[in-house]
Amino acid sequence: MTAVARNAASEGGCVVTLHVFESPSAELMHRLEGGDIALSDAIVSLRAELSHRLDLLAFVVSGLEELGWDIRLEGEDIVATAVLSPEAAREQLEDFGITGPLCVVADLDDTGWPVIQPLDTASVAP
Hey, what CATH topology would domain 3-120 get? Predict the structure, then answer.
């Protein structure tokens, strides 16, 4: 864990998880379900979606880095932490203009906003 992430955990920071990929078969199955679509068409559709998703991820991660968030890769996800309350983080992300793109690559809460969770020291590995 980086010093920023340790500091965020010790000072009551927050965390947001960005989703990069599912397994290739899961990504393709989403396109094949419920329709009569050729596998080749599903692959073309997936290529376009992944390109768009990667562009959004690059934009969001670049913005988070510029704001001083700690960014790390954990398995299939990108995890970002900051020494901010979830409320202050949401305000910062809105002011910086990355909340909209973040909505495409992060889990959303019941109100349609990205899930920004408090970072509990017990949930952080050394």
Answer: Alpha-Beta Plaits (3.30.70)
List pLDDT tens digits, range 80-91. 999 999 999 999
**In angstroms, what is the C-alpha Rg of the chain?**
16
Q: Which residue type occupies 110?
A: D
Q: What is the pTM of this model?
A: 0.79
Nearest to 21 by CA among 101, 75, 100: 75
Q: Which residues lie closer than 8 Å to 124 by C-beta, 6 or more apart?
A: 1, 5, 6, 9
Residue 23: phi and psi, rounded to 5, are -65, 155
Look-up of token digits 């290739």:
24
Q: 110, exposed or middle or buried, with CB in 10 Å at 0-12, 13-18, 19+? A: exposed
| Domain coordinates in residue numbering, the chain | 3-120
Task: With beta carbons less than 8 A apart as the criterion, state whether 37 and 123 touch.
Answer: no
